[in-house]
Fold each of these.
Amino acid sequence: MQSRLISCDCLYNPYQTLPYDQCDYTNKGCRQCASTQYQDDLYARCTACGSVCPLGFRAFNASLDAGNTAVKSKYKLTSLNLCGPGVSTSQDLSFADPLYDPIAYGMDQIKMGCVPCDCGALNAPQQVVFVLPGCHWVCKRDPTNQSEPDYYCKKPLNPLLGTCDQQCLDCQGSLSSLVLPSSSFGFYIQSCQDGVGHLVGNCTSKPTDNAFYTSNSPHVGDSKGCSWQCNRGFQLLRGTCVQCLQQLTTCAGGQAQVLSISFHLAPSLQLIPSLHICRSSCHAMGPLDISTVLLASWCLPIAAC
């Protein structure tokens, strides 16, 4: 009987060489993949087409992608079904950067059985960010408010996935439709939120009691941006508006009360020597965050003050 020797070196692609004990006349030492697999040379295995798609891509679907003319036109292809045992990751991929060469990167994914996601008929690619496999997205928005434009989801996010997967709207459009009340103060425009866009909210900067707002917040998202002051007859003491010092002397018209006080500056509680404050009303003294002790009180003509 005559024997024949075969090479087990897989000369076509050394990365696909099988262990010696698996070499036979059929494979000639080369890894063989099924029709629905590609040659994953990096891991020395056959990998199922469309099984490892990155964010923004999904597995090829013959029925859905037969008429996917948009992707075919973008990549100048007649068919999106390019994956198979003839595709080798070591020989057929460019390993392009998705930011600097998105077309080449997309071609690499198509060869591995992955098709670019459709971000919805009403969305442009720059409006969405894919966050989960299977083409799930959120609307693009910079939480630092330093980039324009920002977008928000038309409806509340999916409670299970935290994704939008629906239409994204321009935050600026929602902001332009809001007008803060001009007849009252103490309001701010809330940051852009999914499901609602921008809304008007109540400021939180003033003490709860005995104070009132004097303006609305000038900055979007700043609930503490409203200016305020204590009610007449009150002054600021350690973050709250308290009643003014007891008026020991009742002054006649044209006169102002003179107070001799000592006080501790908050928060260090440093003792300050006594001094005289001339006032016509407690409110005119303005908000002083101090702890005061009244020593004496008398009246002087306003002109003398």
Amino acid sequence: MRKYFVKDNDGNLSWFDASHSGLEDAIEFAKKNKTDVKSKPWLGEVVDVQAMGNTETVWSYSVNPAADLFKEEVFELITALQKNS
């Protein structure tokens, strides 16, 4: 299982469910903090994020709204394809 996470301006991590609504919440939080949304395998309560395995950036903060829209569209396409497989 994977979860989304965002590092806030104070360096704290906020975790979000790996669902469409979880991603929307993570993106909103990331926009407020001008940072990225990342995904990691969820192993329960985690103290050290680097010890969890592979990290993927699923949404990246950008000052270019067109780039953000493209990334969101690509993620939605990938999510739809995964659901159908």
Amino acid sequence: MAVATCIVDNIRLNPADDISNGIWSISGEGVGAIAETDIVYQGVTAISRKISLPGRGIYYTHDSEVDMSATSSTSTCLFKVNITNYSTAPTTADGGISIWCGKDVSNNYESVYLGSDAYPIGGGWVLVPFAPSSAWASIKGSPPPLDSITGFGIQVNAAFSAVSKSENVVIDAIDVGTGIYISGGTGLDSPGTFDDIVLFDQGNLSNRWGYVTKNDDVISVYGRIGIGFTDRNAASGFGGQQSTRFEDAGNIIVFPDGLMGSNFSGIDIETGTGSTESFIYIENCTFIGISGGLGVVNTRPNIWVSGNQVGYCTFFNNRFVRFREFCEVDANIQLDVVDCLFDDIERYEHYAGYIDGCVFNGAPQIPPNVGMLTCFTRNVERISNCTFAGLGTEGHAIEIQVAGSYDFSGNKFIGYAGNPGSNLVEGSGDPHAAILNSSGGLVTLNIVGEGDCPSIRNIGSGSTTIILNSKVDDFST
């Protein structure tokens, strides 16, 4: 037995609990920064300053270098900022308010993010993940190498339209990391839940890193949630495992956008490796990637499920919106995905999971010769009773990478091009056909149940035969 326990993968560089704790500085003329006790996100104190003119800001200088290179577990800083009179702040187009990491206000990697037009209408604290290694960042002056960052700050780039009555720019704890991991919950102990993670982060005033929060029954995730992991391995992204039971139902979980790199947002799940065995059951939840995914960096979230023939993970009747990827990491994964909706999804990587009764609405930007669902093994038959809708003009519903003969049961295809039926011609077929054969060999699909006869594209030396009700179709191409 083991109680469900949360671990944070985070380094708190400064809690912002006192102006004398570390080196807090101001940029530009005016009244200096003060210890703020009225407006705080975590702990009992933040750092604030009254600002109305451009060239003013607040920044913190750390006493040692921080590695914020792209592959580091400290590549991203989760800023906590509050502009109390945000409606009078400059717009984003006018320069807004920058956040930066580097050396000082003149030598850094910065990005404009906050402005009166981008600020939440209700005001209050804004969480901004920023990776200086990402394409969001602009180089200012001569910043230090990304593995030698010491400065973290906010900077006003244009004048406020009105002077505030009091301190109006507030910054709280400086945190760098990846997210929160939960394990345990086995035996007679209660299984872990998403709300346990919220309680560990937002529910503890001394913690409040900002990775997992909840407001109006909606959970927001900045970074990653790990289920079945006890820590994070900086090299692989996955760390130690512990047997885990995790059960959740009915939650709405969103992944807000930010100035982070790819793969910053998402969920990692481990079902077991032999010495550990985890059971995860998630039903009736809605997962929404608010990230657009089409900007200078693809910031859409992803879900990675790993495991090796032990434990089990089940997703039942869930909805996944605007995800970059749902990935079965291991070839022997024990996974059921049943009656789920994938809306505007870019890619599903399939190895061994059972996918039944799901609806896949592909993202418009899926390119040619790429399948929305890519099957890397001979487990094509584990995809059944699903509906695939091609919303773009290129790309495919399913890509088959291993030659063989497969029963194909109950699958339907909407919005794809090309003639349905066998395609025995190598290197041919419509670039928006339903099935892509990239195996380099012969694929035979035995259509059973109420499934549609799909159109085919072969690349390389592959060819594809369709058999309807044990009879080769009569409209081969």
